[in-house]
Amino acid sequence: MNGEFFIPLLAAAIQSGTPILFATLGEILTEKSGVINLGVEGMMVVGALAAFWIAQSTGAPLLAFLIAGVAGSLLAGIHGAVCLWFRGNQVVSGLALTILGTGLADFLGTPLIGQSAPGFGPVHLPTLAAIPILGPVILTQDLLVYISLLCAPLLWVFLYKTRWGLALRSAGEFPEAAAAAGLNVVAYRWLGVLAGGALAGWGGAYLSLAYTHLWTNGMSAGRGWIAVALVIFAFWRPGRAIAGAYLFGGVMALQLRLQAAGTHWPSSILLMLPYALTVVVLVLAARLERGSEAPAALGINIDPHE
Amino acid sequence: MNGSPPVVRLDGITKRYGAVAANQDIRLDIHSGRIHALLGENGAGKSTLMGILSGMVQPDSGRILIDGQPRAFRSAREAITAGIGMVYQHFMLVKAMTVAENVFLGYPGVLLNRRRMEETVAQLARRFGLDIDPAARIGTLSMGERQRVEILKLLFRDSRVLIFDEPTSVLTPRESEHLFDALRRMAAQGKAIVFITHKLDEVMALSDDITILRRGSVIEGLATTAVTSKHELARRMVGRDVLLQVQREPYEPRQLVLRVDGLSNAGLRDIRLEVRQGEILGVVGVAGNGQKPLVEAICGLTAPAAGVVRILGEDWHRFYTHRRWDGNLAYIPEDRRGLATCRNLDLVDNFLLTTRQGFCRGPWLLRRRATRKALRLIRDFAIQPADTRISARQLSGGNLQKLVLAREFFRRPRLIVAEQPTQGLDIAAIQDVWNLLLNARKAAGILLITGDLTEALMLADRLAVMSAGRIVDTFPVDDADKLDRIGLMMAGSAA
Ligand SMILES: Nc1ncnc2c1ncn2[C@@H]1O[C@H](COP(=O)(O)OP(=O)(O)OP(=O)(O)O)[C@@H](O)[C@H]1O
Ligand SMILES: [Mg+2]
Fold it and tell me: Which residues contact B214 (CB under 8 A, 6 or more apart)?
């Protein structure tokens, strides 16, 4: 192996990992507030479609990116209404959201298949790009990669350094205590659900605006589910989400490269790699877990009469 | 009482739950700088009343006046803003967060600076004599320390009225002393303190004013100086004489029901003890010295790593895998709401939780028969309200414990493991439970784990002193020499 193989692979790992990173950060935020949302896959494809459609019709990719966040939030809002207003089962509602989202995107996206839209390309910073390794791997990516990388520390600061973050975490750990401290727990859970949805929508937008500039159905290809698993692997910490997302991005990129290079491995096995890794990672996380990592009230609805 | 106007005046507070009047036309004044004890039997409505004052429960009618101004609290936040805060029986702390983070929860600032937060908390703690490490995670703290965090939360918000619901029930005697000092200091700095308790010694030692509730109504409000003894207080509270004395018949040990030999587990080292039918072995010691792991090993919650545990003559593994243990071993856990009952099931279902013998035919539950039986027990044990259709969470703490005891004794067990069985019970109920335990001793051997030395001395035939996961010594209760040294033994020095 040499630099000619590795450096493009690392760059590709980042590109492939970025949508996962957005979605994982979103799910961390949602779960920290005590709501589990298994609709990430659905929110991602809807975000991807919204972004593609807006970019194509307005020619403004940045606007398209922002709208994708709104679309993700809207879909997450359904989950919020079911869980926070009607106190429905969070797992069932999230699964329904994935089915709804993927179905909706396939249906609305079919006429767009094969079309292209303007998106984001690599930024070119001549002096920085010349730095060995770092230059080609990180400093010649597109704008959205940097936004995603900025989101992780921002999320960390929000969660651990602001009072709203403290309140949101307490809503996920022990909502009764938060309520007794005079906080509006349901409002903080809404915040977690909607903002998490926006991040998942952005993850989808990356797929249709930067990763490819073409529309195909089934674009997210299970990345939403990987994000859900990565939240556990990352122990709900934004910093570890970066490492996890790029690890998965790397395996996805490697798998593509091996296919292209033509190994004797059947392609179906190679395609399976990221998902097999998901299982391995979850088992590892379960073994490492010291029991106190998951928000204590995750998945438990708030009964206002208690 | 003193001449200054009250900080809080409750005026005609009424709250009904279905047919039960939890509070009925209650009038009560609370003054700054004074410690106010709220007394009453289990289910008298103390927690409900304080829930109303702290904004967690909405009254059906009545007014709350703060500094003479009528105020209505629709949430805890509004009460906190008005300077009224409550330390709950079940702590409202986020275990995964630090002391400082819990104190700052709900605080109106934007950015949190860890060091500044911790300094603020440390300063506040020093001012009121509450010893605590602001950077520690709640999960690693003892019950006494957690309570200090709850108090700090209120002090941090400048609460002027601090309400405590049975604050000493989870504390060791040392920690209780600590708390009392802090309460006195807070009162001296002008805070108004309300505390709910069943321990009349505490009332006599600590309070300035006393209010007694019975069945939802105030039956008496008086200054502590007007009460001569705790017996008088007990009589006023219950309406008849309660002596808190029991008749202990002489000890007649028969066959062995529990033998533990060389048991070692996480938190336990080389435990040796025996319990025979007809005797009560009292395990005493400061909480957290291995009592919990010991009970868990005996009751089948954790497997013993080393050593022998024989229950009713059978090896631990055999007993818990092969035998139909129904009716032989009764476990009365400290955690009534968690381990002993299912909060959303009704009382009949909770009764059937451990008792199915005689209430099953094939796959069918004989619910009607179980309901009749449960109702009988509810009457016998004077559980309020006497209704089998309510769910366990609707019972007050003391009544829930009586339900658990009624259920477990009904099964006529041969080995009873009772963990803090009278915690949170009113004195009439304590008297009942003590008599029940002594009676049960005829047919069973009893392992009594208690933090209350008075209770151990009253009931036990022999005492085992625990310290640092070991049994320091076992001796009969009439061994005066060893009794004198019991404090030293609890602190870990050998007998
Ligand atoms: N949420 C509820 N639903 C129905 N009934 C309730 C509820 N809360 C309390 N009650 C009833 O109101 C009465 C008063 O209960 P409360 O908890 O105030 O008693 P308490 O004086 O605090 O008793 P204890 O000393 O046992 O804690 C009891 O009869 C109880 O069963
Ligand atoms: Mg109570």
Answer: B40, B41, B44, B237, B239
User: Looking at domain B256-490, does it have CATH number 3.40.50.300?
Assistant: yes
- Does the pLDDT of residue B246 top 90, yes or no? no
Say yes or no to pLDDT of A289 above 70: no
Rounded to whole angstroms, the Cα distance separating B458 from B481 reads 17
Ranges assigned E (strand) in B55-147: 61-66, 69-71, 84-87
Cα separation, A132 vs B461, whole angstroms: 81
Does the CB of A185 have a partner CB in chain B at under 8 Å?
A: no
Three-class SS of residue B45? coil
Is CATH 3.40.50.300 the right assignment for the domain spanning B8-238?
yes
The ranges assigned to domains in chain B are 8-238, 256-490
Instruction: Quote the minimal CA–CA distance from A176 to chain B in Å.
Output: 7
Residue B264: CB atoms within 10 Å: 17
Assess contact for B137 and B94: CB atoms under 8 A: no
The whole-number average pLDDT for the span B148-174 is: 88
Secondary structure (3-state) at B300: coil
Domains of chain A: 2-291 (1.10.3470)
B188 touches chain A (CB under 8 A): no
Edge-to-edge strand list for the sheet holding B280-284 = B329-332, B415-419, B445-449, B280-284, B462-467, B470-476
Instruction: Find out whether the beta carbon of B451 lies less than 6 Å from any atom of ligand 1.
Output: no
The DSSP bridge partners found for residue B84 are B161
Q: What is the DSSP pairing of strand B314-315 with strand B306-311? A: antiparallel
Global confidence as pTM: 0.77
Verify whether ligand 1 is closer than 6 Å to residue B333 (CB atom): no
Q: Give the number of residues written for chain B.
A: 495
3-state secondary structure of B169: coil
Opening angle at CA B157, ends B153 and B160, nearest 5: 105
Q: Is A178 on the interface with B (CB under 8 A)?
A: yes
Q: Coil, strand, or helix at residue A285?
A: helix
